[in-house]
Design goal:
Layout (H helix, E strand, L loop, with lengths): L8 H8 L4 H8 L3 H12 L1 E4 L8 H7 L5 E4 L3 H7 L17 E8 L6 H12 L5 E9 L1 H6 L10 E9 L6
Helix pairs in contact: 2-3
């Protein structure tokens, strides 16, 4: 069998960065070989910031090992993968190679007191997280206080952008 340009990982990465998500999906459909090469690239960043689940949960389960970055816009994503709104269940599945979480438009702890617990459960289940970015309108001090090195040993970067901190009982 002849070697292909796709056998060289750096070239594959270089080529794929110029392809749209639609183009990557088309590449996956060309052949089994192309599918094996392009699926990890297609799944590298999952953008759910529009609050629409464009992937069904079974698809997430299959592609989860390739996910490095997740961009979300609200709590619904965590509720969906936790299994139930009550979320006292372990997450249905984890993203073992997740490195970055970008979360926009957070209203943590205000509408649903369990939202802090849900977010923390997700963080604890994903100790590989190195970068967390919150773009928020309001956030509670309880969440900030619990995002420390003991919960996220790999964390290198944590940024809060926007709004105001809601003063709460910190005792």
């Amino acid at each position: 069998m002849e070697d292909s340009v796709f056998d060289i990982p750096l070239l594959l990465d270089e080529i794929s960065q110029y392809l749209s998500e639609s183009d990557l999906r088309n590449c996956v459909c060309v052949s089994r070989i192309w599918s094996a090469r392009f699926i990890p690239i297609l799944w590298r960043t999952v953008d759910l910031s529009n609050n629409k689940l464009t992937y069904n949960l079974n698809t997430f389960r299959k592609g989860r090992t390739h996910v490095r970055t997740i961009k979300v816009g609200s709590l619904w994503f965590f509720e969906a993968i936790s299994g139930a709104r009550g979320h006292k269940y372990p997450f249905r599945f984890r993203f073992p190679n997740l490195r970055s979480l970008q979360w926009a438009f957070c209203y943590l702890g205000l509408q649903d007191p369990g939202s802090i617990d849900l977010a923390l459960d997700f963080f604890k289940a994903h100790s590989t997280l190195q970068d967390i970015s919150f773009e928020f309108d309001t956030i509670t001090p309880e969440l900030i206080a619990t995002l420390d090195k003991s919960n996220l040993p790999a964390l290198k970067s944590f940024s809060l952008i926007g709004g105001e901190e809601i003063k709460g009982d910190t005792s």
